[in-house]
Each structure stands twice: as structure tokens, then as C-alpha cells.
């Protein structure tokens, strides 16, 4: 496990970076391809989007 990855956004905008710490704060162990999530976006100091406050969806 790398400790980070990217989430494809439904709105067609660029993928959002996600760090394992955001996954763990949401009470999850990992993310798998195809998992559905609600999340908020933060812009980091480089202007890239990061997913935070993850909420798994069924």
C-alpha cells in the first residue's frame, strides 16, 4: 500500500488526491477501485485538489 491515491470525481474535473490519513479518519482501512464516497475538497499549496472528510456510500 502506497499511503495515497486518487479519487475520480463524478463532475468530470481532475482527480482528487487522497492520503491514507483521510481514509483512516473516516474509519476505513483502505479504498478499493469502485468504492463510492462523498467527500469535500481542499486545495493544497500547489493548487491541487485533495479529498478530505470522506464518507463511504452504499
Automatic annotation (TrEMBL):
It is found in: Cytoplasm. Residues 1-56 form the CSD domain. Transmembrane segments: none annotated. Keywords: Activator, Cytoplasm, DNA-binding, Transcription, Transcription regulation. PROSITE patterns: CSD_2. The keyword Signal does not apply. SUPFAM superfamilies: Nucleic acid-binding proteins. Its main location: cytoplasm. The keyword DNA-binding applies. It comes from the Bacteria. It holds the Pfam family CSD. PANTHER family: COLD SHOCK DOMAIN PROTEIN 2, COLD SHOCK DOMAIN-CONTAINING PROTEIN 4. This is Cold-shock protein.
